[in-house]
Amino acid sequence: MKKISFFLAFALVLVSCQSGKKKSSSGTDSSISLSAAGATFPLPFYNMSFDKYAKLTGEKVSYGGIGSGGGIRSLKDKVVDFGASDAFLSDEEMTAMPAPIVHIPTCSGAVVVAYNLPGVQEVKLNSDLLSKIFMGQITKWNDASITKLNPTVKFPDMVITVVYRSDGSGTTNMFTDYLSKVSNEWKTKIGSGKTVKWIAGIGAKGNPGVAGTVNHTIGAIGYIGSEYAFAEKISTALLQNQAGNYIKPSIASVSAAGKGDIPADTRVMITNSSAADAYPISGFTWLILYKEQNYGNRTLAQTEATLKLLDWMLGSDAQEVAKQTNYAPLPAAVVAKAKAILRTVTYNGKPVLK
Amino acid sequence: MNSDKILKYVLFIASLLILLIAGGMIYSLFRGAIPSFHQFGWKFLISSKWDPTQGREQYGALLFIAGTLFTSILALVIALPMAFSTSLFIGEYFRNTRMAAIVSTFVDLLAGIPSIIYGLWGFYVLRPFIVSIGLSPQGYGIFTSGLILAIMIIPYATSLSNTTIMMVPNELKEAAYSLGATRLEVIWNVILPNARSGITASYVLAFGRALGETLAVTMLIGNANIIPTGLFSTGNTMASVIANQFGEASGLQLSSLIEIGLLLFVITTIINAVGKFIIKKMA
Question: I need a labelling partner for A63 at 20 to 30 A (CA). Which of A19, A218, B64, B100 fits?
Fold first, then answer.
């Protein structure tokens, strides 16, 4: 017994060692390598643009797609140069960080609504129908309210199977944020967040999980990240936007959602955008970093490398990569705002980028 | 230093490491779960509310515990007769025949298949089959998950029980035969009493594996956060909710997920202890 408790005590000592920071940035090494982690939603875009950047400048960037929550945790623990998140940090989350941080939007994405109805080509939905379907209040495809909106479509007498994301996700956050904006009942019953308490349907993991489940379940409806849906050419429903137009999700209509009023710190959900040609369930994704870069053992060179990369991400080179990887590029006004934010980042209190 | 001493040290360090790792795991689970302990206390075990929406966060593990136990018990119930007959087939009836060798190879093969493959097979083959025979409209839920779990644990239960069945001394069986016992009587009166502790142990092991299985279940159970209401109801399991929500969780939600991990650890430990107790009683 004595021996066992000795072992356990030793185990405690070993575990508590983990709080001691490991720091491996060597000042003598001339080539700087950057590391980042976070959201999986923009992963293909980041991988391709960081690759391109490495070819242009020789600077390697490693990015771990560990989820937005993981990205925020990694930045909080100061183990990455910058993090990535699909949802901007709330005021409480901002104050919980050890130092002030800034948000840099990099591209926009959207959430599309996919369905599995053999023989049906095009479905139009408005916000009221969408919220009622996902709350389990409309349970049949030939419900009068659906057929009224789609007079030319012949709907089968079929049960609607709702498919949602079982994992925490920025896609869910964007989707439920939109529904909370347009439906009071949704807001009080379900609310918005990366995971919410669903009251109808079944869950599947990740975009491929939802897409696969919808694809193999006749009568199913689900929501999928646009980058995945565009790449896989999944047929999607047209949604009515705030201006009353039925909009097909596309890179152009998602990009258009960013045209409205954007605050100076870019922390805004652009769902339910007022622009006439905007797809209503669109949103930015952000990179996050500390405003004052002299922390830990960070050198000025490391800071410069980080900021140059982020500045390049906002340029036309990287924004073109966004389009190739099925993300929507940022509107010019948002790029200007993001570039202005980057120039407020300091090292020892002095701005780094000119 | 002589080689004997070196070996002694190597063995000592290896065993010490196991203890350290296990102790470290328990410690980090406890530490991570503390905020959830403080917030919910014992209610965590009996509440089935899982609402991560900010502003009205509320977590309880009951529905996940129920889903885990339902699927695992169903799996055990289905696997038990299958595994028992197969192990008798290999270990006694067709012992040392070519047929037994083939069956035994395939059982081992099943044990080696990664769980994602079972999940895919369940999703693309088993689930549509269940839909086509009209058992359930979409095929997701407790029954499909339990069935796939049963197939996954059959090899574990089989290979261990057939080893113990084979270890029953031949002298005993020969003695029984010479007294005029039939084959069934030998199985019932000689083999089973001698091998039952090993057979029980194999089922306990198999049950433990069913409890912790994640991927295949996630793909088939429907991931609906409700207490299952029947065999074809959807639900969710402890391992599945951790795998699903861990990546984006923070704060209280993360702590609650860690507490579920701790609970899974505790439940597995209890099952193992019960298994050991049964083995001791029977042996």
Answer: A19
Tell me how far apart the terminal alpha carbons of chain B are, to the nearest angstrom: 42
Q: Which residues of A touch B54 (CB under 8 A)?
A: 90, 191, 193
Report if residue B27 sits inside a domain: no
Residue-wise pLDDT tens digits, B111-125: 899 999 999 999 999
- What single string gives the DSSP state of each residue in A262-283? --TT-----TT--STT--SSEE
Contact B138 A161 (CB under 8 A): yes
* Cross-chain residue pair B137–A159, CB shorter than 8 Å: yes
Model confidence pLDDT, tens digit, residues A241-261 = 999 999 999 999 999 998 888
Check residue B91 and report its DSSP letter.
Answer: I
Domain-embedded: residue B141: yes
Specify if B220 maps to a domain.
yes
Domain count, chain B: 1
Short-list B129, B149, B133, B131, CA closest to B74:
B149
What's the length of chain B?
283
- pLDDT at site A27: 40
The Cα A25–Cα A165 span in angstroms is 38
Q: What residues of chain B lie within 8 A of the CB of A179, using their CB?
A: none
Instruction: Indicate the average pLDDT of chain B.
Output: 91
Contacts of B106 (CB under 8 A, 6+ apart): none
Question: Residue B37 domain-assigned?
Answer: no
DSSP A19: G
Which element (helix H / strand E) includes A130? helix A127-134
Question: Over the stretch B17-38, which tens digit does the pLDDT of each residue have?
Answer: 999 999 999 999 999 999 999 9
ipTM of the complex: 0.79
CB < 8 Å to A203, chain B: 222-224, 236, 244
| CATH number of the domain residue B241 falls in | 1.10.3720.10
**Which structural domain range is residue B277 located in?**
58-282
Check if B140 contacts A (Cβ < 8 Å).
yes
Query: A58 CB contacts (<8 Å, ≥6 apart)?
Result: A31
Torsion of CA A49, A52, A56, A59, to 10 degrees: 70
Let me know: does A172 contact A232? Beta carbons within 8 Å.
Answer: no
pTM over 0.90: no
Mark yes or no for CB contact A205/B223 under 8 Å: yes
Question: How many CB atoms lie under 10 A from the CB of residue A25?
Answer: 14
Query: Distance (Å, rounded) from C-alpha A181 to C-alpha A272?
Result: 7
